[in-house]
Design goal:
Layout: H1 5-30, H2 38-41, H3 45-56, H4 63-77, H5 83-97, H6 99-102, H7 107-133, H8 140-167
Helix pairs in contact: 1-3, 1-4, 3-5, 3-8, 4-5, 5-7, 7-8
């Protein structure tokens, strides 16, 4: 059966939603809120999305989309270009390699997996930025970012799961 133009447009828009939702999280985490020092401890919300979609619907978030997400994260966060891009690509491919392991595991195992991947990503970003600046950057905000991100994972993952059930069931 051949799809009509509207059906193809509907399918395309559904397939594009993981990327667009992740870009939205990049923008949300980059907005300059009027809360002192929030920018230093704002979690990498986009990492939560990359982890979730990489496990559950990797076909809808290919490597080039993760590259674009990392690029936008670099541009909006003000870090040297390529830091988030490279580390997100590495993390995403690690997630893809572990899809079989996480298949049919409980939420707590997946949450622990996110905590481990997130710790690695945060440490890599901290290390790369410390090397690039030539000084050891304060690690306390990094620990705060990590803790807030791990704590927010269940909320964002649940929202994405519901979105997947409602909007992506036909793709």
């Amino acid at each position: 059966m051949k799809l009509t133009a509207w059906q193809r447009l509907d399918l395309f828009s559904r397939q594009l939603t993981p990327f667009l939702l992740t870009i939205l999280l990049v923008f949300i985490s980059s907005i300059p809120y009027e809360i002192p020092n929030l920018g230093r401890v704002m979690p990498l919300l986009s990492l939560i999305a990359i982890f979730h979609w990489g496990l559950y619907r990797a076909e809808l978030l290919p490597n080039y989309a993760v590259f674009c997400i990392g690029f936008f994260q670099d541009v909006l966060s003000g870090v040297p270009m390529g830091v988030h891009t490279l580390i997100y690509i590495l993390a995403y491919n690690l997630i893809l390699a572990q899809q079989r392991f996480f298949a049919r595991k409980s939420f707590y195992v997946i949450w622990l997996g996110f905590a481990i991947v997130s710790a690695g990503v945060m440490f890599l970003i901290w290390g790369v930025l410390s090397i690039m600046k030539g000084v050891v950057i304060d690690f306390v905000p990094v620990i705060s970012q990590y803790g807030i991100g791990v704590g927010m994972y269940p909320i964002i993952s649940y929202a994405f799961s519901r979105w997947q059930q409602v909007a992506l069931q036909q793709t």
